[in-house]
Backbone:
């Protein structure tokens, strides 16, 4: 059976609404003399804190080479299924032929992305990073599905932390000598 909770009657002061009005005015007057808490965006830009998770982007290594090997781990782990990868093969005579694959296309739907950073965490090649970009705008839904070219434009080049490719290449070269 439903339990009826009696509603507390309003006091005389509450019935006049004065405490609520005065409470609101107190906040208004306090803000009139305190430093600004708002920004004149876009002329003024916020300071982005370290570790901020903005738009996920694809990055190249310091030699301008594509790092993504289209392993699809990020696509698999992405909770809202915002990533779509179209894997492609690297031709044998390409300078990066020591890895087999690179994405033919790589799409991230910025309307689905929840900026969780799992793709960055899972990537074995340090190829995808959430950078400081926070302003995502467009007129249509389709232009907010960023393709590979756009993702590389936004991502640029980041310092390679562990030179995995160089190690792989050296290991491959040593393998050929034996
Ligand atoms: S940040 Fe999260 S939601 Fe966005 S693409 Fe990466 S894994 Fe998916
Ligand atoms: S970005 Fe990283 S995890 Fe995603 S497909 Fe490329 S190499 Fe794999």
Residues:
């Amino acid at each position: 059976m439903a339990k009826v909770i009696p509603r507390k009657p309003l006091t005389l002061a509450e019935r006049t609404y004065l405490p609520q009005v005065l409470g609101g005015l107190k906040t208004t007057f306090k803000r009139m003399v305190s430093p600004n808490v708002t920004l004149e965006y876009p002329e003024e830009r916020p300071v982005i804190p370290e570790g901020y998770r903005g738009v996920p982007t694809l990055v190249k290594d310091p030699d301008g080479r594509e790092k993504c090997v289209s392993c699809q781990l990020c696509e698999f782990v992405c909770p809202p299924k915002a990533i779509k990868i179209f894997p492609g093969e690297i031709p044998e005579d390409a300078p990066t032929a020591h890895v087999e694959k690179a994405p033919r296309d790589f799409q991230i739907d910025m309307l689905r992305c929840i900026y969780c950073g799992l793709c960055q965490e899972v990537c074995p090649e340090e190829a995808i990073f959430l950078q400081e970009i926070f302003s995502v705008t467009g007129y249509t839904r389709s232009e907010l599905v960023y393709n590979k070219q756009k993702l590389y434009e936004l991502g640029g080049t980041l310092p390679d932390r562990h030179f995995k490719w160089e190690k792989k290449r050296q290991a491959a070269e040593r393998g050929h000598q034996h």
